[in-house]
């Protein structure tokens, strides 16, 4: 696989072979040796043979990171510094990147899935065949193709094939059904849908309500023609040896991704080709420094922008490979990282606290991961998590509309609790209800704008009024509450939709959840407001206890009372077995809210008085 061992006598110049526009303009020299303990604000450098390195550097911005194993030997690593901020001019579209990287990497591995490995050429040949078949069906540039699929190599090839044909990918959440599924397909104007046996049951709850669909392709053995489904395998009969000749530019749409729709009907976020190039480049060169000696890992679905733009495009642009699973499994997560020998993983939603709540194992720190990058990790467990799993966490912030990311904590200047500073293509601000910038420390809405064209959403598909509302005053309005400090670091406070107002005070559900989840018997918590008989909201907590825990509602209240202002302590507490979640592990709080509090424990009814 071209990953040689490095030694002081014959160091591998890991950066010298990189072909992602980063010439070896200088060297870092790192030593894996006896370094006393972890510096919590630094990121270990890219590894050789996927081993964690604990790097010393002559560059002012680099510091010591990582915890070396006892008795470790001296090992030298040489690596290039980060490359240019902007992608090379020849990369304007997803297809530009695919064509160039396949030519360079050939039969080198690109994707690891379960026990199989697929090369750059393997995926590209299937993509070419699919593209040719789509064109043969009359699918033209700009036509929409819906995918209703779980992660798989064929899904990746299908995405690439759709891109090569000049069509627009419309990836659908596999949990959708009935009206919700029909709405997204109809709204997208797609006339072609590709599904699989695992999503067929949900698809058929919406099938009779579809308005434009003319062709339905089924992955698997169930397509016999009698039920109207065509076999996906017929799409693989096209010419696999050549990519179709389609003229594409950086501003041509690549994808329409439908938002979760928790505050209204879903909106189709239109992202152009260059957004994929730009975010992938930002991820592997500016947010991180990824080399061909890294292997990326994600469980996030290919119908989500994170997996598409960071893991897949990041791996392509860094000329390395990635491993992918179908779903998040807390009990198997680090075993999967070990099995795939992965060095970098993405996290989102509640992953970090859920992983941290797993029963400790002697081999927790014995894993190849060096960096986890994501959002929403509770600040009070980050350092303990890093110590336990011997990995460095990089917190950031972003959304589909901003091309996955908007800001990130600098590796050499991290502030725990912050989501960091803006990226090379973004500006952030905190504004009031009239879009006036607020001074440091004051809470307001987080707004984002791009400084590089074609890097963020173009529009909400067929929703000009919603587009104008989101882009008012030339800023993307995120719907999130945040603040900034004097040094330009930003802090996420809460979703505006989930913010709670109690007795004239603002309550962050994120803060209350973090307090509750610090209880040793709590697995996960979701906090939201319910209408109060006195007006405004009452703080409500839905809680999943740890297995076998003997937990009472009053235990939660007393635990919060020690950690939160009195007006933030939940009035209602309800224990549940599970939460409704999106496919990206976000709790669907609106569903919990709809369930009401009739079966919840009520602090006021119980007569417990908080100390003020």
Characteristics of this structure?
Rossmann fold; 3 domains; five-stranded parallel sheet; disordered N terminus; single chain; GMP Synthetase, Chain A, domain 3; 612 residues; alpha/beta; 15 helices; 29 strands; nine-stranded mixed sheet
Structural summary, described in words:
By secondary structure, the protein is an alpha/beta fold. Helices cover about 25% and strands about 25% of the residues. It has 15 helices and 29 strands. It has a 9-stranded mixed beta sheet with strand order 4-3-13-12-14-15-16-17-18. It has a 5-stranded parallel beta sheet with strand order 6-5-7-8-9. It has a 4-stranded antiparallel beta sheet with strand order 19-20-22-23. The longest helix is centred in the first third of the chain and has 17 residues, at about 120-135. The chain starts with about 25 loop residues before the first strand and ends in a 6-residue tail after the last helix.
What is this entry, summarized?
By secondary structure, this protein is an alpha/beta fold. Helices cover 24% and strands 23% of the residues. The chain is globular and about 75 Å long.
Helix content range of the residues, please? 10-25%
Number of helices: 15
| Strands, count | 29
Mean pLDDT across the residues is: 85
CATH fold assignment of the largest domain? Rossmann fold
Alpha carbon gyration radius: 25 Å
**How far do the termini sit from each other?**
63 Å
Could you say which overall geometry the principal axes of the C-alpha atoms support? globular
